[in-house]
Amino acid sequence: MRKREEVKSILRRWTAILISIAVLFTAMPVLNAYASEVTQPQMQVLASSAVAVSGSLVSIGVNAHDFEKVAGLEVSLYYDPQIMTYRSVSAGSMTENAIVDINPGTEGEVKESMICLDGMNGTGDLMTVVFEIKDTVQAGVYSILLTVGDAYDTEFNKLEISKTYGQLEVKSPSEGKKEAIFDAQIDKGTVEEGDSLNYTLSGLDSGDMAGGSFIFYYDAALLQLQDVRTGSSLQTASSLCLINKDAPGYVKVSYADINSISSIGGNEYITLQFQVKSGAQGHTSILFSPEGLVDINLNSIKAAKSEIFVDVTKKEIPKEYPRFWLETEGETSDNGFLCGCEGGG
């Protein structure tokens, strides 16, 4: 009797163990499926957010997040043409190996269609659109909308890709516009014909400037331009600087860089060297006018014009007066004296 009870006890324990194992193996696929659903990254298309000033340029990116074998996709970025004007668009790094068609022809929409047989993978930009914020736009926050069309993987299975809208915050010029502060100096306030004159433009605060034009106007009837030199701030490894000095009375230095100029004051940007023309005389000036200054995000930067005045005087030539004399020897005049004169002007 006792032996029979021991056998029943052993059977009960084994039954409990077998039931536990069965429950465990039955639950594992469910647990694994649940874990897979939680940890698997979700593919997304996102519109970037930006801050800009009315009247300036702004870049809005359309970005991919956690893409996996995306072979076909169509994305549309929507904007309000009452707020901003389309300027340009470029395909992003994610589409490097894809066939891309970008259509900005419909006002208020920029559509990008992509086909990549090898599949697009990872996170990166799909396209970047540049807009100009209208001057009349009131400060505020505006939505940047997206739609994601049908998407397929490399085996032509349909994909679910979510979207995230962006925001554009517009600030008034007085509220958000950066300012560059320049300092113009000449080495002489008064010059004579034939003198040299050096004009130097320096930066006291760059305002994170990364591009723009420096335009100078001078009186070509009085001043002859000899040379235009750019300082080290405009001659970096990543910068491009072009000088237009062909038209008399006008100099334009155009500058662009992928990095902003240091805000440390005292940097010499441009030096103009003049020579005063022969016979020049008068009161003149050299006018500096900055145009199209932007930072690395293409936001406009304000800057003031400046004007420096120069007095050009005619060189004084010492006047030679005639020299008279009287002689009492040799040939004489009727009065007994010989008169002579030489020199003079």
Write the layout of secondary structure elements.
Layout: H1 2-39, E1 44-47, E2 50-53, E3 57-78, E4 84-91, E5 99-103, E6 109-133, E7 140-148, E8 151-153, E9 158-159, E10 162-164, E11 166-171, H2 173-176, E12 178-179, E13 181-186, E14 190-192, E15 196-205, E16 211-217, E17 223-230, E18 240-244, E19 250-256, E20 267-276, E21 282-294, E22 301-302, E23 306-313, E24 323-327, E25 338-342
Parallel strand pairs: 1-10, 2-11, 12-22, 14-23
Antiparallel strand pairs: 1-3, 3-6, 3-7, 3-8, 4-6, 5-6, 7-11, 8-9, 13-15, 15-20, 16-19, 16-21, 17-20, 18-19, 21-23, 24-25
Keywords:
six-stranded mixed β-sheet, 345 residues, single chain, mainly beta, 53% strand
Summarize the structure.
This protein has 345 residues and is mainly β. It has helices at residues 2-39, 173-176, and strands spanning 44-47, 50-53, 57-78, 84-91, 99-103, 109-133, 140-148, 151-153, 158-159, 162-164, 166-171, 178-179, 181-186, 190-192, 196-205, 211-217, 223-230, 240-244, 250-256, 267-276, 282-294, 301-302, 306-313, 323-327, 338-342.
